[in-house]
Design goal:
The protein is α/β, with parallel strands linked by helices. Helix content is 44%, strand content 12%. A 5-stranded parallel beta sheet has the order 2-1-5-6-7, with helices on both faces. Helix 2 packs across helix 5 and helix 6 packs across helix 7.
């Protein structure tokens, strides 16, 4: 019945033997991405400590014609699937007496990325002889991925919270998200050009296609790029994840 229903709207429906199998298929797909993103994020943490450009490493590895699928690091996971479904699977498998170690470990690593980004911002400001406290920090993009309006579980919200806790004056721009309100905190989108020009540090969290990155590089005092949005651009003011 389910296959017949979905075939009314979809060109191709892949049938399986039960709803349990169908649900596990979805869980596997989301868990696969979550774990591989976790690996990419762990590589970013390692490369940062060793002074290696993780983006260059991944791009070079991706030239292999087989056996490698590139996943990329970032400021953390967001959305309503990848950050949630694997942990539902982990909870469910515990009921069957199985410990989902890959899921839990990847979840821990991915959860470390917003604090890591904030540390990168703090270190970049320190190098510019500025403290985080009292600095104006402008976030570019709060949606959980590019060119959408969904900010559910977005790592940008964690980054906003963490920077404010350290005493920063935080603002954000996002053409798709006019307001962010959560847990008693309320932010309203700021004019992008003004935010970039006024900030002591600009942090690219979501790489929306509508952002003028050449303008950002020209006008910003300092930039922390968590998405490799400035790939191919060179400047002493750019700090990459």
């Amino acid at each position: 019945m389910g296959q017949l229903f979905y075939s009314q709207a979809l060109q191709k429906v892949v049938g399986v033997s039960s709803t349990q199998v169908a649900e596990m298929v979805k869980s596997l797909e989301n868990t696969f991405r979550m774990i591989n993103i976790g690996l990419a994020n762990e590589m970013a943490l390692m490369c940062d400590r060793m002074g290696i450009n993780v983006w260059e490493v991944i791009d070079a590895a991706a030239t292999k014609p087989f056996g490698f699928m590139p996943f990329y690091p970032g400021p953390g996971l967001g959305g309503h699937c990848i950050p949630i479904d694997p942990f539902y699977l982990s909870w469910k498998t515990r009921q069957a007496g199985i410990e989902a170690r890959f899921i839990e470990l990847a979840g821990y690593i991915n959860g470390q990325m917003p604090p890591f980004v904030v540390d990168k911002v703090q270190n970049a400001l320190n190098d510019a002889a500025k403290p985080v406290k009292g600095s104006r920090i402008h976030i570019l993009g709060v949606a959980y991925k590019r060119d959408i309006a969904d900010w559910r579980e977005s790592p940008a919200v964690d980054i906003l919270h963490l920077l404010e806790r350290r005493g920063a004056e935080v603002s954000y721009s996002d053409p798709y998200v006019p307001v962010v309100s959560l847990d008693g905190h309320h932010w309203v989108a700021y004019d992008c050009a003004r935010g970039v020009e006024e900030a002591d540090c600009v942090v690219i969290v979501t790489d929306h296609g509508s952002f003028d990155y050449r303008f950002v590089v020209e006008r910003a005092r300092l930039i922390v790029d968590t998405r490799n949005a400035l790939k191919g651009m060179t400047s002493e003011k750019i700090v990459r994840l």
